């Protein structure tokens, strides 16, 4: 059960004086401009109105959305209400979110925000039934469109790196049934279908050009690749260089996994130089797909991140390393950088995760991947100091200037006819 959101303190402008009357707040610059316009002659009002309309466009375009997405996990008992999360992400200008289910409270809270969602369903056995797959899409996806932008459904998560052979056999039929449901409901132009894989489906990843899938998984992966090519959906991978460093800190260079300056590693087969492990993992996946006859698919990172805390034996799980990994990665994403093999294809990444999740099982690191604590405080500095919770999913701090100008326009238009 989610905790109730904390009550917001009374805004400064609403405090009452000793006699019980509201204090007069100082006028904002925008309000002074409105009064000046209203007191001007009519021709001048027209010119000023045009300038205000231009200002609306400038303000609206001043803060472009960030180029990375974020995973919004909810395995916790202390997370804020989705409405507050909506305000937080809008204050960050994050416009892509990945869920592990299709939580109606979250999808409702983000209605009208323009934020794009990936939703998930891991009930593979039921999803192989075409009737049940259609019922799920009709109940959990269709009602929220188009007010909430749902662009992808992930069927299962890291199924092929597990040990459940029944789930492996059900994966593709479930993906096909969900896609057929999307088509039947007329949603195919808005929503695609995929699944997320661990990099552990690779038998070899070094050098990147030698990337190849595990032999025993070929029977599952080949038809899945064919499915992606047929429907035009991306190949999603969850990639964590942290795991490689944790397993072999003596042989894996920390700067190499943190995107810090280092000599790099040269692939002897392609002569391409890699200065970080994540890009090498992406290109190893491209090589493995090419070995199966597919050069027509795009690899996207559905999860990557670094924990800020771990158990004593979890080497490298520190605040400094987490800040370095995610901070350096975000800089590269902002540059539109591609991998050495595909330099013209900007990497597409969903960072894991939005919050620390206190109920996740496993080692301590599993509960400490968040960029934020549940109270909205950043775990470390990534330039998110202006982030804040908002009580409304449609009125964040970044949108208030635009709304002020729009109110001014309404007042001016009414003034012309008085």
TrEMBL record:
Known catalytic reactions: Hydrolysis of (1->3)-beta-D-glucosidic linkages in (1->3)-beta-D-glucans
GO-annotated biological processes: carbohydrate metabolic process
Tree of life domain: Eukaryota
Leading EC class: hydrolase
Keyword GTP-binding: no
An example molecular function term from Gene Ontology annotations: glucan endo-1,3-beta-D-glucosidase activity
PANTHER family: GLUCAN ENDO-1,3-BETA-GLUCOSIDASE BG1-RELATED-RELATED
Protein name: glucan endo-1,3-beta-D-glucosidase
Organism name: Setaria viridis
């Amino acid at each position: 059960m989610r905790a109730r959101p904390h009550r917001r303190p009374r805004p400064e402008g609403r405090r009452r004086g000793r006699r019980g009357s509201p204090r007069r707040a100082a006028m904002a610059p925008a309000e002074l401009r409105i009064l000046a316009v209203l007191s001007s002659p009519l021709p001048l009002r027209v010119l000023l109105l045009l300038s205000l309309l231009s200002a609306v466009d400038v303000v609206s375009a001043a803060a472009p959305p960030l180029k990375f997405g974020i995973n919004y996990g909810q395995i916790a008992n202390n997370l804020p209400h989705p409405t507050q999360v909506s305000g937080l992400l809008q204050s960050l200008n994050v416009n892509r979110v990945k869920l592990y289910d299709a939580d109606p409270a979250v999808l409702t809270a983000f209605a009208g925000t323009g934020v794009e969602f990936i939703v998930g369903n891991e009930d593979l056995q039921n999803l192989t039934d075409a009737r049940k797959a259609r019922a799920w899409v009709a109940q959990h996806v269709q009602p929220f469109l188009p007010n909430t932008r749902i662009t992808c459904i992930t069927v299962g998560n890291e199924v092929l790196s597990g040990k459940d052979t029944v789930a492996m056999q059900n994966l593709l039929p479930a993906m096909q049934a969900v896609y057929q449901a999307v088509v039947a409901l007329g949603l195919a132009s808005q929503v695609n279908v995929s699944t997320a894989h661990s990099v552990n489906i690779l038998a070899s990843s070094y050098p990147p050009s030698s990337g190849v899938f595990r032999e025993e998984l070929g029977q599952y992966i080949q038809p899945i690749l064919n499915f992606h090519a047929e429907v035009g959906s991306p190949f999603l991978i969850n990639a964590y260089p942290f795991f490689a460093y944790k397993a072999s800190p003596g042989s894996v260079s920390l700067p190499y996994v943190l995107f810090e300056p280092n000599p790099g590693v040269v692939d002897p087969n392609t002569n391409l130089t890699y200065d970080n492990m994540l890009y090498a993992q992406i290109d190893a996946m491209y090589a493995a797909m090419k070995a199966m006859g597919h050069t027509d698919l795009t690899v996207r990172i559905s999860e990557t991140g670094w924990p800020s805390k771990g158990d004593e034996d979890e080497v490298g799980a520190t605040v400094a390393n987490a800040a370095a990994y995610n901070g350096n990665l975000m800089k590269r994403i902002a540059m539109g950088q591609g991998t050495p093999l595909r330099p013209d294809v900007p990497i597409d990444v969903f960072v894991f995760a939005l919050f620390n999740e206190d109920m996740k099982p496993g080692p301590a690191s599993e509960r400490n991947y968040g960029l934020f604590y549940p109270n909205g405080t950043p775990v470390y500095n990534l330039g998110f100091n202006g982030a804040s919770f908002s009580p409304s999913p449609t009125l964040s701090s970044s949108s208030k200037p635009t709304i002020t100008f729009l109110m001014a326009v309404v007042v001016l238009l009414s003034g012309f006819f008085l």
